[in-house]
Amino acid sequence: MAAENVKVPEGKEEIRILLVDDHAIMLEGLTLLIQNEPDMIVCGEAEDLPGAMGEIPKCKPDLALIDISLKDSSGIELIRKIKKKFPGLLTIALSMHDELLIAERALHAGAHGYIMKRVGIRKVIEAIREVLKGNVYISQELREYVLKSYARHQGLPKHSLVGMLSDREFEVIQLIGIGYRPREIASQLELSPKTIETYRYRIRQKLGLANTFELIHFAIQWVKIETLI
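Now predict its structure.
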């Protein structure tokens, strides 16, 4: 039986969860956690954007837990594609990244919640149940910070270099850091190569990078550091 106040779709006895993460240990931990809930079941797993988009029609999830840094792809782009193609599917973004830097981007892309992996795996169940009630889930700390910031008409602070980038620029620098070439990034984001070159130029300007070599070096180092946080 489903937990009280949780909206289990009519005709279903269990909440079906899709896990999208390229870390085997994380997948195993999340699966054990979710399967231990009497009203939840892991219906499928994927490690990248194409795998997730192919798995959704097969396992028909009610909610997807999505890692922001996926194998060869962007979790934020996946959330955006899900919102467009499967608008009824709830999504929660998982990340190792700084909450103030990523959460707003994930929610803007269409996520219904955001949770940092470092806060503890049990918080995932809390986030799932909150989103299933029809609410947006973010940490209490971030919620208070957002309210205070917007009350002062300041918005979220751009407290890091990467924080100055737009959502698209952020996705581009992620893919550069993973090792994608311009044409591959264009294909991944469904944009023209010329548009990607424009984004690369804007990123260099914002980050004060002299040339493409410095951009690639910065992107690779940033992805490495953020993955280890």
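The longest helix spans residues 212-228.
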